[in-house]
Amino acid sequence: MTIPPDTELGAYLLQRKVDPDLASLVESIAASATVVADHLKEAAFQNHIGSAGTTNIQGEDQKLLDVLADRVFRETCGDATSLAAYVSEEAEEVTWLKAPAAGDLILYVDPLDGSSNLEVNLSVGSIFAVSQVQADGDTNVLRKGRDYLCAGYAIYGPSTLFVITFGLGVVGFTLDPSDGQFKLTNAQMRVPPETNEFAVNSSRQRFWDEPIRRYVDECLAGSAGPRGQDFNMRWTASMVADVHRILTRGGVFLYPADESNRRAGGKLRLMYEANPMAFLIEAAGGAASTGTEDILRIQPQAHHQRVSVLLGSSNEIERLVQLHQIHPSQEKIGS
Ligand code: AHG
Ligand code: MN
Ligand code: MN
């Protein structure tokens, strides 16, 4: 017989002695996720499936649910008294909610990740991270991932989970539909150093640099190749779902800068996609790199900056970094 989980998110934050302002923001983020989960369930009946007919700062089509999820996070978290700035994938500018004072909080959000999966009813998620204003009047939101106070995601799948780290250890809470509470179900999420599973969008193969090409070739060669073991491949097109799988059973996720996206820096966004996931993966014992640099050490130059992302089981990231040292990127600029 299994014992039902009884530690709710609020009790966990108290027990972990999380600063009350930060704890209150985390509870607002979790509350936003439950509202987004409800919107997703009702979308077909509310005419919320499909495009909003607008594009975001990235030039990507916004889905109605991207816009709705952004509004939910902005409004729900905007009530947290210590929140000074809201940085979202869906908004060109940083939203300032108050005059920043030292210690105030900055929230980075990808309100709906994997939104190309909405029409096909596959898992999507919300990614978040929190950092801190350094001094009274300081409007610089460009903090390194290393300096984040916490990071996590909600995944909307067969069940809704809220996964979070404050830098040491990663925990997961499952939304209990019977009372609407997030309950601790995954007390210690770890990324094993070894894996035989990789995730990459291989339709981009012709654009890859030599190190990525070599790494994937070695995986595909399996037990007959230099790695001497067979590999499995999974790609969901929702980073949240791929990272959740890696935090559950290990693996490696690659969205490298390549010949066609290098001019933009890569595809995934540093401050609200790559850094939160790198922060989680490292807190769970894994590693995250661009191939040549630790993601969490990058000094952001812009809040919508994109970056090359390789993260997951540490032995695989080590192999990828090694390959980048053997075959330095030719820095070919895409046309
Ligand atoms: P978003 O829906 O927030 O724009 O993010 C989508 C991202 C990420 O979740 C996923 O890993 C990747 O884009 C999928 O890219 P491809 O379409 O190239 O597979
Ligand atoms: Mn995303
Ligand atoms: Mn998104």
Question: How helix-rich are the residues, as a percent range?
Answer: 25-40%
Straight-line N-to-C gap: 60 Å
Shape: globular
Radius of gyration: 19 Å
- Largest sheet, spatial ordering of strands: 4-3-5-6-7-8-9-10
CATH architecture descriptor text of the largest domain: 2-Layer Sandwich
Question: Total strand count, please?
Answer: 17
| CATH class division of the largest domain | Alpha Beta
Mean pLDDT across residues = 95
H/E element sequence:
HHEEHEEEEEEEEEHEHEEHEEEH
What is the CATH homologous superfamily assignment of the largest domain?
Answer: Fructose-1,6-Bisphosphatase, subunit A, domain 1
- Structural category is alpha+beta
Largest sheet: 8 strands, mixed
The small molecules bound here are: 2,5-anhydro-1,6-di-O-phosphono-D-glucitol, manganese (II) ion
What count of structural domains? 2
Note the beta-strand portion: 15-25%
CATH topology of the largest domain: Fructose-1,6-Bisphosphatase, Chain A, domain 1
Would you write up a description of this structure?
- The structure is a single chain.
- The strands form four sheets. This protein has an eight-stranded mixed beta sheet, sandwiched between helices.
- It folds into two domains: 9-186, Fructose-1,6-Bisphosphatase, subunit A, domain 1 (Fructose-1,6-Bisphosphatase, Chain A, domain 1), CATH 3.30.540.10; 197-326, D-Maltodextrin-Binding Protein, domain 2.
- The protein has 335 residues and is of the alpha+beta class.
- The termini are far apart.
- Helix 2 (20-42) runs antiparallel to helix 3 (64-78) and helix 4 (210-221) crosses helix 7.
- The protein has helices at 9-15, 20-42, 64-78, 210-221, 239-249, 270-283, 314-326, and strands spanning 51-55, 61-63, 83-88, 95-96, 105-113, 124-132, 150-156, 160-165, 170-176, 181-186, 197-200, 232-233, 252-255, 268-269, 287-289, 306-307, 309-312.
- The mean pLDDT is 95.
- The protein is built from seven helices and 17 strands.
- The site of 2,5-anhydro-1,6-di-O-phosphono-D-glucitol has 12 residues, from strand 5.
